[in-house]
Fold each of these.
Amino acid sequence: MNAYVQRVLNDLIARNPGEKEFHQAATEILNSLSVVFDKHPEYEEKGLLELLVEPERVIMFRVPWADDNGKIHVNKGYRVQFNSAIGPYKGGLRFHPSVNLSIVKFLGFEQIFKNSLTSLPIGGGKGGSDFDPKGKSDMEIMRFCQSFMSELYRHIGADTDVPAGDIGVGGREIGYMFGYYKKLVNEHVGVLTGRGLTYGGSLVRTEATGYGLVYLMQEMLKDQDLDFNNKRVVISGSGNVAIYAHEKVNQLGGKVLAMSDSNGYIYDENGIVLDTIKLIKERNRGRISEYVNYHPSATYVEGCKGIWTIPADIALPCATQNELDLDAAKTLVKNGVRAIGEGANMPCTIEAAEYFQGNGVLFAPAKAANAGGVACSALEMAQSSMRTFWSFHEVDEKLKHIMINIFHNIKDAAARYGMNGNYIAGANIAGFEKVANAMMVQGVC
Ligand code: NDP
C-alpha cells in the first residue's frame, strides 16, 4: 500500500478506537485508492486524505420519548455530516438497535463515494438511532420521530443536509419527521427525501434502490453477454431494497428462489411470490416465516445464513452489513454463482468480496450497485426545487440512465488503473476522483 495511505489508515484506526465497521470500510476503500495516490503526490501535499477521513461534523444527541404506558425511554441520536465538497450532505437515517457511531461513520464514509458516483451534486452524510421500531405502536413511532427531529432540525436544511430513509425508516417515519420539521421551521421545503407523493415525494423513490441494483447488474451482465432471463436468483432480506430488486428481476425474466428476514429464510424452487411478500412485509409488518401459510410448497428455515447454501446464478445480498462471509462465498462459488450485486451496504465481508473476485465471479459493490436510492432522492430534490413532478416513466428512465452510467464509469476507472473487471476498485476510484478534485480547488476547509 502507498506509504501515505497506510499512515493515514493507521492513524484513523488509532484515533477512532473500537469503531470496527468504520475501520473495515476505510480499509477497503483506502486499499483501492492506493494506486491513485501513487500517481498524485499533490494530494499528500494538501493533506487530502486526512481531511477526507475525518467527518466535517458529528452530531450526537439524546432522544427521549414516552411509550404508550407513559414509561420514559432514552435513545441515542446521530447525524454524521461527512463531506460537502460536491453538494449538501445527503444520506439516510437508520433506526435499529445495532446503530452506533461506528456504523453511522462507516455508512457516511461510503456515502461520499456513492453519491459522487451518481454524478449528481450531493455530499455524504448518514444518521440514525439505536431505537428499535419493531413492535412499537404508531403513536410510539410518531413520538419518537418527533423527539428525534426536535434536535435534528437545527442541523439540516434543503441546501445543507437532506436525510432520507434506511433500515427501519420508511414512508411512515419520514412522514412524521417531515411534519414535525415543518412545524418547527415553518417551511415546506425538500429537507427530507422519501416523502409521500402527496407532499413533495417523487415517483420511483420507493422502488429506486432495488430497481437501480438490477439495472446496474443488467448492464454488468450484458457486458459479458449474459442477462437475467431464466436465471436463479437468491435475495436476502425482505425490506425495501429486497422487495423492489425482486420486482425488477421478475420483470427481466429471472426467478427468485429465496428471501429472508433477520429470523430466517424461505425457499421455493418454483419461485417466491412477490405479492405475498409485499402483503406480509409492507402491509402487515409481519415475519417471513408466515409465507409458508400462504404457499405450503415453500419451506421456512430458522436462521438467515443458510440462504447462501441455495444454488443460484445470481445472489443479491439486500439485508445488512457483513451478512455474507467467506464460508458463504465459498459455498456460493462451489454452487456455480456467476454474479453478486450488493443491494445492502457492505453486506459482504472483505474476505468474501475478494474470494468472489478471485474466482471469476462478477461483483457489483454496494456503493455503485445500491446508488439508485440516493440518485432518485437527488431527483426528488430537483423536483422540489423546480416545484414540478415528473412521471414514473421519466424518473425511471433517468434512474436507469444513471445506473448504466455508473457501471461504465466504474469499469473505465478500473481499466485506467490496470485492474480490468475489478469493480470494487473502479467504484472507489471513480467516486473518489470527483470529490478529490472538488476538495483540491476549495482549499483547506
Ligand atoms: P429495511 O428495513 O426495509 O429491510 C431490511 C431487511 O433486512 C428486513 O427484511 C430485515 O429483517 C432484514 N435483515 C436484517 N438483518 C438481517 C440479517 N442478518 N439477515 C437477513 N435479513 C436481515 O431496509 P432497506 O431494505 O431499506 O435496507 C437494506 C440495506 O440496503 C441496508 O444495508 C441499507 O443501508 C441499504 N440501502 C438502502 C437504501 C434504501 O433506499 N432503502 C439505499 C441504499 C442502501 P427484519 O424485518 O427481521 O428486521
Amino acid sequence: MDVKIVEHPLAAARLTAMRDERSDSPRFRAALHELTMMLVYEATRDAAVAEYAIRTPVAPAKGYRLGNPPVLVPVLRAGLGMADAAQAMIPDASMGFVGLARDEETHEPYAYMESLPDDLAGRHVIVLDPMVATGGSLLRCCEMIAARGCTDIDLVSVLCAPDGIAKLAGSGIAMRMTTAAVDPELNDKAYIVPGLGDAGDRQFGAYRRF
Ligand code: PRP
Ligand code: URA
C-alpha cells in the first residue's frame, strides 16, 4: 500500500493541537478541519484533470477541473469532522456515509449504517476517518466500497498505527493512504500511543484518558 506521510510545519502544528489534552472541543475540531484540507490537498495531487477553454479578461486560456470528481465517505462518527473540509476542497464531490463503532472489549467494528451509491465502478472514493488503530474499521469500510465495484480508493486519516497499516496493506484491496503521522504502537485498549485519545469523544464533547 502506498502510504504518504504529510510532513509540513503547518500540518504538524494542527496535529499538535489535536494531540494536546488541553485542547477543548472547538480547538480540536478547528485543527481537524484545517488539517483535513491539507491532507485532501496532498491526497489529490495526482488526480486526473480535465482541460477546458476559458477566457480571462485579457485573453483565451486553458482551464482545469477534476476529471472524475470523487465520492467522499466520512466514517461516522469521528470522520464527520473531516466532511466539510474535504467538500470545501472538492465542491464537485458527492458524499456517502458509513457508520462504524468499535466494540470496547473485542475492538471489532460494528457497522450500523451504510449509505453509499449502489454502483461505485469507475468512481474515485476518498474515505475520511481520523484514526487507524487496529485497521479493522477502515478495512470494513473498504470492503463495503470494493463490494460495490470501486477499484480506486484513497484513505485520508490524521493518525495511523503500524498494525492498522499492515492490516489494510495485507487485505488484497488496492488503496492509498495519506496521513499526518504514523505513531509507534497501540496500548492494551487498542488506542494509538501517544495518539490523541478518542477522536469522536474529543470532537463531540467528552474527554477520557486511556
Ligand atoms: C474510531 C475511529 C475509527 C476507529 C479506529 O471510531 O474513528 O473509525 O475507531 O479504530 P480501529 O482501527 O481499531 O478500527 P470509534 O469506533 O471509536 O467510533 P466513533 O467514531 O463513533 O467514536
Ligand atoms: N479510535 C480513536 O478515536 N483513537 C484511537 O487511538 C484508537 C481508535
Amino acid sequence: MKVAVIGGGGREHALAWKLAQSPTVDSLYAIPGSAAMAEVATCVNIPLSDLDGIAAYCKNEGIDMLVVGPEVPLTEGLADICQKQGLAVFGPNKAAAQMEGSKVFAKNLMKKYHVPTAAYESFTDGEAAKAYIHQQGAPIVVKADGLAAGKGVVVAQTEQEALDAVDAMMKDHIFGASGGRIVVEECMVGEEASLLAFVDGKTIVPMISAQDHKRIFDGDKGPNTGGMGAYAPAPVMTPELVKTVETTILRPVVDGLRSEGITYQGCLYAGLMITADGPKVVEFNCRFGDPETQAVLPLLDGDLAQIMYACTQGTLQADMVSWKQASACCVIMASAGYPASSHKGDVITGLDQVQDAMVFHSGTAEKDGQYVTNGGRVLGVTAVAPTLKEAIAEAYQNVQRIHFDGQQVRSDIGAKGLKHLQ
Ligand code: AMP
Ligand code: GLY
C-alpha cells in the first residue's frame, strides 16, 4: 500500500514512524512532512491549505490511503475532496469534523444524545452571554466556537475575567470569526485524561488511555501550551472507566452522528475530566492528539496501516488492535519564549547520544547538516518501559543528552500517574 501522511509536526512524525513499520506499507509519503520525517517518508512540499493540490497529487501518485494529522484540513473538507476522487482517507469528513471545528455543534450533539459534559449555553450576543455569567457566577469557562489553535478557552476564576473574555472574543475579535459565537459553560473539577479511539463509522475501538500536560510549568502552572508531555496508559483511567467512557460518551456520539446522517470515520479524541460524578467531556478533537500520539503509538502492537485502512472501509475489528504490556512517557522540549512566541535556529546537539528512546520532531529544520529549532514545541522524547516509573526515568535520561539554547522542559511529566500507582 502507498500511504501519505498529511502534516509535519511531532504527531505526524510518530504516525509516519509507526506506519513505516507496517508490513502492508510499501511506500510512505509526507505532505508537507519535515526534515526529520524525510528519514522515513518521501516529503512533498504542498501547503496544507492547498486541499485540491493535495488530492490531485495523491490521485496522480496512486496513493492508496491518506492519513490526516491536523484538524484544519479536516474541518475544511480535505477528506470530502479526496473521497470524491476515490481516495481512501483516514480522518473524518467536513460534517463529522465539526465535533472539533464547532464547540456549539459538539455541545448540542452531546445534549441531544445525553453525553455527560459541562452544563452550558451558547451565545451570538455578548450582552446575553454576560447576563448568563452574572447569573451563574465564577468560576466559569468561556470558549470561542471555532478553531483557535487551542487558545480559545478561558477558565475564568472571577466574573470579571469571564466578562473580559466575552469582550475579547466578541468585540475585539481576538480569534476572528471563531469568536462570533461562544459557549459559556460550567467549570468542572477533576483530573483530565485523553481517550482516543479508532472509528470506522460504526465500530469503535478505544486506544490505550493517555494524559497530556497542558501548562508550561511544573505543577500545572503558567499559561496553556499545545502540550508539554504525555504518558500512556494513564492509571486514572481504570479499565472500568474506559468502559464507561466507551458506553456513555464514544458510543452515543458516533451513533448520534449517524442518526444525524453523519458518518464519523478516523480518530475520535475525547478530552475528559474525571469528576466526582464520573467522566465528562471537556472537548472532542477530530484527530490524534499531540503529544498523546507520541506516547500511545509506541505501545501499539499490530499493523497501524491495516487498522486505519479498515476504518476507511467500515471493516474495523477489535482484534486488530492490541497493546504492549508496558508504559510510555513522552517529554516535550520547547524553545525559548514558548508558548507566547518561539525561537528558531538554535542548534540541537546530542541527538546521536540518544539510547533506547524515540525522538519525534515537532518543530525542527535542517541547517548545514544539523538540526535546529524551528517552532515552539521542538522535540518529543519518548521512552517505553515495563513500568511508568522506568519509562519516565528513561525519557528524562535521554532529554539530558539533548541540548539547545533556551530549551524548556517540564520535570514532572507522568508524576500524576505515579501518584495513582502508589
Ligand atoms: P480545550 O481547548 O477545550 O481543551 O480547553 C483547554 C483546557 O481548558 C482544558 O484542557 C481544560 O484544562 C480547561 N477546560 C476546558 N473546559 C473546561 C471546563 N468546562 N471546566 C474546567 N476546565 C476546562
Ligand atoms: N494534546 C492536546 C491536543 O492534541 O489537542
